[in-house]
Amino acid sequence: MKVKILAILSLLLLVTSCGSRKEIAYLQEADQIPLEVLQQSMMPANTVVMPGDLLDILVATTNLEASKPFNRMGVLTEIASNSYNNSNNTTNNSQNFYLVDQDGNIEFPVVGTLHIGGMNKKQIEETVVEALYPKYLSERPSVDIRFRNFKVSVVGEVKNPGVYTSLNERMNILEALAMAGDLNITARRDNIMLIRLNADGTKNVEVLNLNDNSLITSPYFNLQQNDIIYVEPNKSKINQSWTIPPAVTLALSSIGTLVSIATLIVTITK
C-alpha cells in the first residue's frame, strides 16, 4: 500500500514539475527553429520618427564655418569638446536636440519647418541634405542623426518596473525585461501585453507569449521607441491579493453579534 502511495505522489510531483516548466520556461525548444528562419527575422526594423521624439541632427562640411548656422549651439559645443561620439556625454539641454511636434515637423535653423514624421534616419538625412544643398551650401553636407529618446516602459509583475532607454537605438523584449530585473515568479509568461504607438498616432495592442519560441520570429520581438510592456499577474498572485469586501465583513460581524446575543438569551432563559 505504501509503495502505491509513493508511486502516486511521485507521479503527481512529475506532472506538477512538467506543468510548471511549461508555464515558466522562456522560448521553449527555440533550438529547433531553422537557422535560415532566424537569420531572416532577427534584423530590427528601421526606427521611424514619431511625434514627441527628440533628435540630434549634426550637419558637417569641410568648412566648419559654412555648416555652423545649421547646427544647434549645444551640438557645436560637444563637437568642440570631442564628446559628440560618446552618447553618455550628451546632455538634455534643449539647445542640443529637435523636438518633433504633433504634425511630425521640426524647426530647422535657417531653413525653417521640415516635415520628418514617419521617416527613418536615412530618409531624414536625405531631406536635410536636399534642403541645404545647393541652396545654402556649396558642397553636399554629411548629416548624422540620433534618437535621444529610444525608450520603453515596463510595468506589472517585474522586479523593477520603470522606463528604460537604449543608447544604440534598438531593444528587444527580452532585453527590456532584463533591464526591469526579469519577471516575478508570480507573473504570467503567456500573456504579455505590448502597447505600441504608431507613427500616424494610432495604437496597437498585441499579446505575446514568452513560452512560445515563435516569439523570436515575431515582428514584435524587436521593440520600437515608446513601446509599453505590461506583465499580468498569474492566478496565485491574484488569489493572494483578494480581500473580503468591507460590506461583507460588516455583515458577517453583525451576524456574529446577533448569534452571540441569541445564544446569551437562550442561556439566560433556560
Poorly predicted tracts of residues: 11-19, 86-91
**Strand order in the largest sheet:** 7-6-10-8-9
Radius of gyration: 29 Å
Fraction of residues in H or I helices: 25-40%
Query: How does the helix and strand content classify structurally?
Result: alpha+beta
Described by strand count, sense and barrel closure, the largest sheet is: 5 strands, mixed
* Helical segment count: 8
Spatial gap, N to C terminus = 53 Å
Oligomer: single chain
Number of strands: 10
Query: What is the string of SSEs from the N terminus onward?
Result: HHEHHEEEHEEEHEEEHH
Mean pLDDT: 79
Label the overall shape: elongated
Range of strand content? 15-25%
Helix-strand layout with pairing:
Blueprint: H1 2-24, H2 35-41, E1 54-60, H3 64-67, H4 73-80, E2 98-99, E3 105-108, E4 112-115, H5 121-132, E5 142-147, E6 151-156, E7 162-165, H6 173-179, E8 187-197, E9 203-208, E10 228-233, H7 235-241, H8 246-269
Parallel strand pairs: 6-10
Antiparallel strand pairs: 1-2, 1-5, 3-4, 6-7, 8-9, 8-10
